Every structure is written in structure tokens, then in C-alpha cells.
Amino acid sequence: xxxxxxxxxNTPVSRQPIGIYVHFPWCLKKCPYCDFxxxxxxxxxxxxxxxxxxxxxxxxxxxxxxEGREVASVFVGGGTPxxxxxxxxxxxxxxxxxxxxxxxxxxxxxxNPTSFSRELGDSLxxxxxxxxxxGVQGLQDDRLRFLGRLHDARGALAAVRDAVACDVPATSAxxxxxxxxxxxxxxxxxxxxxxxxxxxxxxAYALTIEPGTQFGALHRRGRLPLLPEETxxxxxxxxxxxxxxxxxxxxxxxxxxxxxxxARHNVGYWRGRDYVGLGCGAWGTLSDEQGAFRYRNxxxxxRYMALEHWPIPSEVTAGPGQPHQDFERLDVEARLLERLMLxxxxxxxxxxxxxxASLGLETLGERRQRRLLELKTRGQVxxxxxTLAIPAAQWLFADGIIARxx
Length: 406
Known about the structure:
By secondary structure, the chain is an alpha/beta fold. The chain folds into two domains: 13-270, TIM Barrel (Alpha-Beta Barrel); 333-404, Arc Repressor Mutant, subunit A. The protein contains 14 helices and 17 strands. The protein has helices spanning 48-62, 85-97, 118-127, 141-146, 153-165, 184-195, 214-220, 229-244, 264-271, 301-306, 332-343, 352-359, 366-377, 398-404; strands at 18-24, 26-27, 39-40, 71-78, 106-111, 131-137, 170-177, 201-206, 249-252, 255-257, 275-278, 283-288, 291-297, 324-330, 350-351, 382-383, 387-389. The strands form four sheets. It has a nine-stranded mixed beta sheet, with helices on both faces. A three-stranded antiparallel beta sheet has the order 12-13-14. It has a three-stranded antiparallel beta sheet with strand order 15-17-16. Helix 2 (85-97) packs parallel to helix 3 (118-127). The relative contact order is 0.11.
């Protein structure tokens, strides 16, 4: 089966492709808006080789639980995986190829401008990486400082040029808009500048304030300057207009791509594809004969590095001192709600009959059906009896629309 497209949602679990997420937790500096697991460290203090051995050990043991399933995508995220280096990533991919065919697999690696070079990109390409995801975040030095980034605008642009010029086939760039002091015209100019350098994919995220971050703490004390919601909405519209004018498809609320370059790994999340999580603090979600479960590896790097065994998650092995920080059985209602929350972020929406069949359901339920019809009457969703989608004109209100279907 080709991995260029996901399997239909009603394909038996044993034949559905999976994704693999690998977490590399170290960064040179923790950004104040980031709520991902990251550990600030100097380059020379990062135990990259030892971490590679641990991730490979975990892979070998977890592979038995998904034996025979194809790998549609691999995503190495963090943290700052470009600090792992090509050797560590190559060793991991070699171990992965020993157990799975990666012939048509999308293999993405997150990189930061401060630790990326064309030489690194060429080495990653030689290791089999097919996609660079570069954390540009902005092109104004004052806003980059506000966001806690270590690079300046010049360094960001140089990194994008190197990524586009290296042997890795595709480049994606991340940008944050809606930052204090930004205008809609400036937001549009930033994405246009990056797009014009030749990237095939661009993620444009509105700045969000997460509770457990430095920004979250400042916000609680009323000390964080924020852009008015109306201006942030104008930035969203300006970004969309600038990128569509350059041939980018707005295929998900925060994501744009040239035709044929949608991020397969992230599309897997939005469509509910199973994925294995590897590495310290990594999340994974898998289906089995009982339904589905979600786990998270220990967030303690010392604990992770000391582990010898990674059993398939169970309630017995989850908790402090165990390989898994969290474990949760997902009932049908939770899985349905998640499919709606994530699938409705896509421009194509959700094919509801296939989704229901994959969950063993016949209908969305009487209450959801009533609310769906109300939303359709208001023009907030498009619904033809099979495909359910939020029209692009309503994407700024997607969270509230989805909440009505909860």
C-alpha cells in the first residue's frame, strides 16, 4: 500500500500505517512561550550518544507491539533535535529500517537556526531525512528577543536558505504571529519573505499563552504585553492572503503547503492515526483489541536514561518511578470527541461515516446531530450528510464551534 495517503479510517487496525514520534528533549535555552518538555543545556553537556542508545533500545522493545504495520511518517521533535546531530539521528533511522520499511516514509527533523547548517542538512539527507522543519518564529529582531529566541532575523533567513539549498528534499518553516507590537502587514511580510525563499510548507501559529510557561506566569501577574484579539485576527487573515497568493494551500487552520507537500505526520494526528512515542517525555497513542490507549514516557531524563525495559503500557507500569508517566484507556466517547476536535481543523473536514465505522458507532448521537444542524443553519459548518467541515471563513471561531459538538 502506498504511504502517500493515509489508509481509510475503517481499515482494520492491523493494516493501518502508523506514525513514529521521537522526542529529543535538550535545548540551548528554554523559550518563554514553550510548554513542551525541554531541558536547557550547553552543547558539550548533552549526552547525545547515550541518548541514542536508549532510544534505540526503546524502539527495539516497542516494535513488537506494532509488528507488520507500515510506517507512514517519522517526526523527530523536541527540544532541539538539530543538537542531536546527524550521527545520532542516522543511528536511530538505521535501527528503524532494521524493523520497518521506510521506502515511502516522510521523515521530518525539527531544527533551530542556531544549530542548523547546510552541512548538517546534507548529512541528514544522507541519513534518509526527507523534510526539515525549521523554527524561524519571526523576522523582526525585537520580537525574536521578546520570544526568547537565540537567533536574529539575519540568522533565521540564512538558515532557511541553507535548508532549501541542502540535499533534504523539502523544507518547512514555523512562524509565530500575533506578537505584541506586530501589525497585520508585518505578519504578512514575514511569511511572504520566508515563502519566497523556496520552502514548500509553512506553519503560522498565533501566539498562545500556556499556563506552565514563563509567559503564563507573567500573564497571571498582568505583566505580559499582548496584541489585541482584533489585531491578531487581522494578522491571521493577512497571513492567509499572502500565502494563498503564492500558491500555498491553506489545508489546516495553522498550516499551508504547496500542492503535494502537506505534512503527512501532522495530518496523521488530525485524522486519528496511531503513533508510537519514543524518547523522554514522548506521548504515544495506539489501538489494540480493547480499543485504544495513550501513554507518556517518563519526563525524568535521569529515569529515562536508567531504564532497561519498556513494556507495552498498562495501568500497572504507569506512574512515578515507572517507564510511563501516564497511561489512559480511551473510551469510544473520548475517541469520537478527539476525532472531531482534530479532524475539523482540516480544510477537507471529516468523512463522518468512515469515522463512525472505525469507532464501531452508527450515529453521532441525537444531541450532536441537533447541534450540528444548528451550526449548519448559522453557516458555521458545512455538512452534506457525509462530510463535515468548518468553512475557512469561520476558522477564527473554530474552537467555539468544535466546543458546541463536544
